[in-house]
Amino acid sequence: MPITDRIPYPVRTPIMAFALVVALAAALAGPALATTPTTKVVAKEGSVTSLGKTVLTTTKGHTLYSLSAEKKGRFICTDPGCLSAWKPLVVPKGVKPKGPVKLGTTMRPNGRRQVTFKGLPLYSFNGDVRKGEANGEGIKDVGTWHAAVTGPLAAEPQPQPESPNPNPPYSPPSEPKYPY
Questions:
Q1: Cα four-point dihedral sign 111, 117, 57, 86
Q2: Tens of pLDDT along 133-159?
Q3: Burial of residue 144, with CB atoms counted within 10 A of its CB: 0-12 exposed, 13-18 middle, 19 or more buried
Q4: Rounded mean pLDDT of the chain?
Q5: Residue 40 CB contacts under 8 Å (≥ 6 apart), including other chains
Q6: Cβ neighbours for 69, distance < 8 A, ≥ 6 positions apart
Q7: C-alpha–C-alpha distance, residues 21 and 10, integer Å
Q8: C-alpha to C-alpha distances, 98 to 40, 41, 46, 74, 90, nearest whole angstrom
Q9: Which residues pair with 121 in a beta bridge?
């Protein structure tokens, strides 16, 4: 005789209902957990002394730029000539970009997700070879290319003048010369 035949019918129904609720909850939670976006650090901050500014950089330290005319989902840099000089900063679908400031994404015409800062798509410039360079700053095209500035250049600490020592070293009083 199977075990279920030994459990009275009124007890079996709540057990089966509970099992059904647990299975349904697991089925509904599975897709919700699977669609949670992962994050990836794609930018950091760096100093560009020629601009006197702190800017967004790639994780390798190269300055990131935006094109002034690329606003509200309008892309200008889409042809091979532009894309050979200006490389879009992209992330895979489902990845949320992370950096020292709030970043977003927008869909490029080719379907890739490009990282944005203050709503403007970000690019690196192939004319920047070393960290701290901003050779793309001010280049005029259909718009003007600008480094993604996050703030002023951090001021270097100024040397402080030496203050007189309030506690000079102890020197014993000189002995007066008394005739003996």
A1: positive
A2: 999 999 998 899 999 999 987 665 556
A3: middle
A4: 83
A5: 91, 95, 96, 97, 98
A6: 76, 141, 142, 143
A7: 18
A8: 6, 4, 15, 23, 12
A9: 116
111 CB-near residues (< 8 Å, 6+ apart): none
Other beta carbons less than 10 A from residue 132's beta carbon: 16
E-strand spans in 13-169? 38-41, 44-48, 53-57, 64-67, 86-88, 90-91, 95-98, 104-107, 113-117, 120-121, 123-125, 145-147, 149-152
Six token digits for residue 34: 């699977």
Reply yes or no on whether the pLDDT at 3 is more than 60.
no
Q: Count of alpha carbons within 13 Å of 147, Cβ hemisphere only? A: 28
**Domain coordinates in residue numbering, the chain:** 3-34, 38-152
CA dist., res. 22 & res. 27, Å (int): 9
Shortest CA distance to 62 belongs to which of 147, 4, 121, 139?
147
Residue 85: phi and psi, rounded to 5, are -95, -35
Length of the chain measured in residues: 180
Whole-prediction pTM:
0.67
**Coil, helix or strand for 38?**
strand
